[in-house]
Every structure is written in C-alpha cells, then in structure tokens.
Fold each of these.
Amino acid sequence: MTTPAPFITAKTDLERYIAIYRNELVDNILPFWLKNSPDKVNGGFFTCLDREGKVFDTDKFMWLQGRQVWCFSLMYQHVAPNQAWINMALSGADFMQKYGRDDFGNWYFSLTAEGKPLVQPYNIFSDCFATMAFAALDRIQPDPVWQKIAIDTFENILNRRDNWKGVYNKTYPGTRPLRNFSLPMILCNLALELEHVLGKERVEAFIPELIKEVMEVFYKPELGQVLENVQEDGTFSDSFEGRLLNPGHAIEAMWFIMDLGKRMQDQVLVEQAKEIMLNTLEFAWDEEYGGIYYFLDVKGYPPQQLEWDQKLWWVHVEALVALAKAFAFTGDPRCAAWFHKVHKYTWINFRDEEFGEWYGYLNRQGEVLLPLKGGKWKGCFHIPRALLQVSNTLAEMAKV
Amino acid sequence: MTTPAPFITAKTDLERYIAIYRNELVDNILPFWLKNSPDKVNGGFFTCLDREGKVFDTDKFMWLQGRQVWCFSLMYQHVAPNQAWINMALSGADFMQKYGRDDFGNWYFSLTAEGKPLVQPYNIFSDCFATMAFAALDRIQPDPVWQKIAIDTFENILNRRDNWKGVYNKTYPGTRPLRNFSLPMILCNLALELEHVLGKERVEAFIPELIKEVMEVFYKPELGQVLENVQEDGTFSDSFEGRLLNPGHAIEAMWFIMDLGKRMQDQVLVEQAKEIMLNTLEFAWDEEYGGIYYFLDVKGYPPQQLEWDQKLWWVHVEALVALAKAFAFTGDPRCAAWFHKVHKYTWINFRDEEFGEWYGYLNRQGEVLLPLKGGKWKGCFHIPRALLQVSNTLAEMAKV
C-alpha cells in the first residue's frame, strides 16, 4: 500500500480512492470473514480470530452475530448478489433466531458455540444490532418472520430505553442520574435502517427528537465537544462519567447526523455536524504519534479508562466515513485534508499486508497491541461498512 | 534515587534497604496522603489526586476509604503512635460508619463527597476492606461498635461468598459456572487481619480450607500458573475467563500463603508458594521493556483486557513484598536477585521525585500513562503496606 497523493485535486484522485476502498472490501475483508468465521456445525459465526484467521475462542457475542448478518445482507444488496454472502447472513440469522433471545424477547449478550446462554441480556446494543440484522435481511429476502423479529426488537428497545440496564443497573437511583449518549446516537442510525419496516411516517416523526438530543443536549457548544453522559436536565456533570469524551462515538454520530441532514435537505444541520466532527478530530488527534485517542477527559484530568491513549480501528474508519461524507456534502477543503491524513495513518498502521484484514488495537505509538482480527468486540462490521460508505460516497461525488 | 548495589551480600546491604523503604513510607507516602486527601468538611478521604496531590474528583470509593482507614491504623500500631495518623483513621471510619452501608449491611461501591450513595454494593471487596478497616482500628482503639461492624461485615462476606455479585451477576446460571480466585485469595489475608475479633480457633479452622483452595484448585501444576477462574469442579475452563492470568494477584496471594505457612511452621508450604511466585514472575516479566505484565492468557492468545501490557504500581510492590518474604523465609538467592531487579524497575519508573508519592499506571515502555497519584482504584494502600512489609521483613532478617 503506497501512500496516495494529497486528496483530492482531480476526478482521477476520486476514482483511485473509490477503487482502493472497493477492492479492499471485496478482495480482502469479506473473503477473510467468509473463509474463517462460519461455524459449520452450529451455524452463526466465530468472531475470535487470530492474526491468521484461526479461531482461538468459540463464544458467540450477540452484538457481533447481529452485525455480521447485517453486513453480509448489506453487501448482497449494495455490492453484488453473491450467493455465498446471503448464505452467511442466513446462517447467522437462523442461529440468532433459534438461540438469541430470552423469554421476554431480550437478546442475550453471549452464547456458547452451541447456542447456550452465557451472559444475560444486560446490554441493549445486542438488541440494536439484532433489529438491524433482521431488517437488513428482510430487505433482500422479505419474510414476515424476520420482519416481526426486527419490529418486536425495536419496540422492546424503545420500551427499555430509559433504564436499559434493568436489574443490572448498578447506579443508585436519584443521587446522580445521568443520560448516556450511546442509545440516542445509535437510534439515529437505526431509524434509517428500519425505515422499510417502520414506515416513512414513523421514522420522520422520530428523527427530529433524536437530532435535538444529539445536537442540543449531548453537544455542548461552550465546550466544543459531544459528551458521553449528561445530567438528567441535560447539563454538564463534573464527574468521571460527565467529563468523559469518546471521540470515535462523537465522530460516528456526526456522520449519522449528516445522513439525516442530507435526507431532510437541511444543509445547516450538515454544516453543524461537519464542524463538530472537525472540532472533535482536532481535539482528539495525537500530535505526537498520530491517530485518534480512544477516551479523553473534557477537563484534561486523567480518565478512568486505562486504554485511553490506544488507537482503535473503529474510531479511525468511522472518521474516514465522516470525513468523506463531510467533504462530499459540503466541499470543505479541510475535510479533504483531514481525510488524507486519517487515511494515511489508518491504512499504514491497521492494515495487515501479510495475513489480510486489519488489526483492531494499536498502542499509542501505533504498534500492534493485540494481533487479533476479531474478538469479543471486533467483528465483521466497522471496516466493511466504512469501506462501502467511503467508496459509495466518493462514487456519488464522481458522478457529479 | 541511585540504584543500589546487588542485593544482598552483607548485613549493611540489609540495613540500607530497610532505611530506604522505611524512610519512603514515613517521609514521602504517608505525608502525601495526610496533606492532600482529608475531606475537612465531610470527613473521609478524597482519593482522586493529580500529580501534585490536588483533588480532581470528589467521589468516594468505599474500597479506598476502607483501605486508607486500615493503613493509618496499621501505621499507628506498627510505626509510631502519631496522633495525626489515628485522626485520619477515625475520620474515615466515622464517614464509613455513617454513610457506607445499605439497609442490609452491604457496603456501597461509591458515594458522593457528602456521603450519598452513587453505586450499589455490587462489589464484595468494598466489604472486605471495610472489615479490615474496622478490625485494624479496633486493634489500636478497642470499641465494641467497631468490632461489631468488623464481625457483621465479615459474616456477611461469608454469606454472600457463593454469589457475591447477587442481582448484579450477569452470568446465565448453569451454562459455564466459574469460581473466581479473588475472594479465596483475599480471605487468606482477612483471616489473619481479623484474628483478634474472630478468635484464634475460628481462624485456624478456616485457614486449611483457604490454603487448599489457592494451592490445589487455582494453582495448576501442569500449567505452572495460578488461574483467575476455574470451573465449578476445579478444572480448567478453555474460555477467556478460564485462560486469564493476573500475575500480580498470583504473586500477592503467594505472600499471603507464605505468611500462613510461617504461622503454621509449614516450611514445605512456604517453599511451594515461593516456587509458584518465582514461576509467575518469570512467566510475566517483560523481557523487552522490563516490568510485570498486568494480564496474560495462559495459552498465549490475545487477552480481552486492553490494558494487558501496562505496568501497574500494585503488581510491582506486591512482588517486592513477596520476594522479600521469600528470601527471608527460605534464603533462596534467586529471590534476592529478583528483588534487586524488581526494586530497580519499580523505584526508577514509578516514583515521582518531583511531587512525591508514586505513579500508578505506566505503559508497556515504562512511561507514565496517567499522571495521577490516586484515583478510583489507586489509594493509600499497596505502596505503604509494601514499604512497611519489606522494611519489617528485612529488619527481622537483620536481627538474626
């Protein structure tokens, strides 16, 4: 992988980037998961894959099962109607449908390879990725059973929304009630993902509330940052949780908002999201070693997270998506310059030229911290989604 | 701090080490906490202290309140009857007694500065350090109220022992029941700490079971390592949890076991514990950058813990205690050589010559990862305890 010339001076640059991102998706990432992750005995996917793709642990994490079903469904729909891809999605969906839920329709956090529950449904993001998975599969192969799973799960997410940890919530009620950014953020994306099952009207009734939550509650203009947690009334909480910044989250949320802004033809919103995204990048970029920090404290105090200075794959590829969209939607040359910078860092440091796929976890210096290609949290999701989003976004630009 | 000559060739070397450890305790560590941590308004301690000792967060973590009460009580008893020290212990105990427990006598995980509960009693180690605290205070200033708190808390720990996470346990029952090493390990230490309130007979009835648990269940001779989690029947679980090694835990447990062995005049047990400790050190020592890894996978797979390669203060000072004891109790020259090596790494990398106290968190390379002197997990405990244990252990040797 040679470093590309500064981005983007001509249509030929665009074409070159489109090819790089598209080829990486089709020739490297998807074949890696297709080859290494299927559980041919039980169905579903192994996601704990070592550097070479060998399975080193067989537990199944429902986040990652759902994300992989979603991913292969999406690729079938948007890249090519490849039978092997839909078979992957179907195998995962079948496993999820059989074993994934408790009696109340909540999705377990993890299962054994055979589908026995290991960890209770304490984490609502299992449900978020399950609903995305079944909705995506239903788009390419409509089936009332999948549609029902998608809708039931979505309604359950909304029902659990205000106390989604349920009995596993360790916060003492009343002393310092906080609202967390993750769920409103992901709902911005879910709303669009589920449009064909929820209906345009419901989605459009839903969107303004979510945008307001992200842009007016969690984004604090006086701090110039998106917070991970705020007090119940939306104000800043001077506590570990309240001071926490997760730049990757903020950047990812901004491309969800830009998508919503574009859909609503609200260019002011798109510009706002772009500015917040650029601010976040500038604040969270490691000037010494390059890359984007994982966690920061908005007041500059030591964060609780010992992994705060590590460089994670998803943070960087989400930044690439956000920058490509921001450039395509606004033409701001700062976005092109940042795209080039983040592209260079990401492709040089995360990509494994020898054994395929990308590393997930680098230390602050950019060296490999864990040689795995997949694990409990890294699966077949952020990288393929980003490669597709970037190539499609640039392809749209190239058409103009 | 100049690097000392290779340890320990003569009695003068011993004397020099004794002075170094004792002076660091009395002139650096204890004054730092005495000056910076008291909450003069509400009682109790602030533990989130930045590099200079300034309070950057006022939440109170019950682990650390209990540990600090214990620490100042112990110092009063074993170092000097310093009124300021007992006042510290009393202030913490008063705060804990007033605000620390729920209606069932379980200790909260954290409180606000004023004592309002923030995080529920999901973590039994809050209780472990509370019982240690009140027992230690009762040793220096006997009081039936404190004695009762110590005993009630201890009984409650035993009652909760088999499912101490209670309603916060996210493990699905039955699929993969695991036993965790932390509680048996800490009970080895607690039993001795509480002897004057529990009585010699009860403690001695208790000890063999704990030793068996640590040395025959969690220590696996075929792996040469102490595991953090085993299956219910004591066998190895080939899962993330089952493969997990926490070398600091294993090393700390081995000095608890050596103390028990010495008390029981069981030299075979002392020798066994020494060998396990040396094995652990050899396995977990970072040959490239020095220092002891925080987490490892016994099969060499990538651990889940992103902080796995970091160098933590408590791991290193516990190793110093274990090595000093092992050398004192067995005379094995490998222990002296290792003591010298770990001493050098620890004092050069963790100690802050400029602002006092020691850093807690270094990256793999030995650079400061977080400049804090105290936080949510680092308080006034491991360092002062280790300085006292090492100096006392060597002082005993010097007498011979």
Amino acid sequence: MATAAIDAARILAGGDLPGLIVVNDAGKPLLVLPGTQVLRLAVPSYCQDDPTLARVIDEAAADVFFRELDGRTVQECLPDEPKEPPVVDGRATALEMAALMARTRSPLVAVTNPDGTLAGVVTMHALLDRILGDGA
Amino acid sequence: MATAAIDAARILAGGDLPGLIVVNDAGKPLLVLPGTQVLRLAVPSYCQDDPTLARVIDEAAADVFFRELDGRTVQECLPDEPKEPPVVDGRATALEMAALMARTRSPLVAVTNPDGTLAGVVTMHALLDRILGDGA
C-alpha cells in the first residue's frame, strides 16, 4: 500500500489491467483497487466536478497527472468501501474463474499460492480471450 | 440490443474492452454493458452460486459458454439498473475524458459525432497508455 500512486498508474497503463490487487506486508491479496480510483487522485477535483473545465487547462494531461500524483501512495487511492478481491488457487478452472467474476462482478481474480500469497492475476479479458479466442 | 450475446462476448474478448456501449436504433449511445454482465449469462447460475462446483464440470468452458449464450441477445444481458454511458464529443481533451471516468467511475467513455451517434469508445487503458505510456 506504500507503492507510489504514479507507479500504480503506470502499471495500469502498461499492463492492460482493469484494476490492481493490493497485497498486505505478507504478500496476501487484501483488496481490489479499481483503475478509475487512481484517476480520482490523478485528476484535479474541480475537473471532476465539471469535466468540461478540463478543456480550458493549457497543460499536458501527463504534467497534470504527475503533479497531482506526486508523493501520493496507493493507500490514498483506496476506495471508501474497498472490495475484497475474488481469490482462487492454482487448481481453478476457466469456468470457475468466469463464475467467480460473474458472481462478484469483478473483472479480475487473484490467484494465490498454497501459502495464500499472491501468485498472479487473471483478467476477464484474458479469460474470455482464452475461452472464446481460439477458433471461436 | 438485438445483437447476439455470443457476439458481444467475442467483441469483449477480441477488443480489449472492459464493457460495451449499447446504442439505440438511431445509433445513439444508450447504456454501458459491463463485461461481467455478459459472464452472468454465459455461466450456469448454479456455478455462480457456488463457483467451486464449476471445477467438477467435465466440459470445456467454451462449450458451456456457447450453449448458455445460444439464441440470447444483448437485451437479456442488461443489468437491472443500467448505467447511462459517459459521453464526450470529438473536441474532448485527454484530461477531460480522465475527469469524466474519475467522476462516473466508468472505465470507458463514448465519443459521439455532432449528430449524437456513436463515433467510438475510449477505454481507461488506452487513455492512461496515451497519457503515461510515451516516455513516462
């Protein structure tokens, strides 16, 4: 949770992810950080109140983002009511992960190692691609 | 809304999209269809009630999806409380779209033509990539 907010934004941008799984100090999945929540910290609040105001800002969006996120941590991006991530172990089938995403309305599930630490993340997009992508 | 649900799932899978914008007969954006909502139709409900049950199904996920979605339309995938899509026109700046995503907590915005018909969709991922991706 002490990860810099700007690094979280970069991971979202580079990783084709709808959100991030935040882990605790022991490496166990703690909660889901939706990507739009990072945007809430990156965009000045007066622009969020009236998005058309953003049009008159004579500054590159990247500069605004870097200034707003400077020195902030993931901790500050957390939603008021954080959602516990849907979690599966390494034996989960594609259908099981799809069922969990459908049930929790989460576009990503955390995959854990036997000791409960985070092994990886499966996104809805990757899952659908795997299920329907090949020859479908 | 008469689009086949299986085609919606394929577009989600192939298009790297967190959801779809559903348009009315006049081509104007009507609502957002979150990807997880399509999964709710694709996965048998007893699996959603207990995702671990999915593990014992001796059938490929793709076969289950095709059977469940067969003959269904996007209309049937719509959430109980559909969300109106955030909409911008072609003059919107990157910061304006980010502000709108932050405000509406939507990972996609609809871009419209001057006549109000849908011109395209910008995803949070594409936007972050554009803002932070180059040399950031």
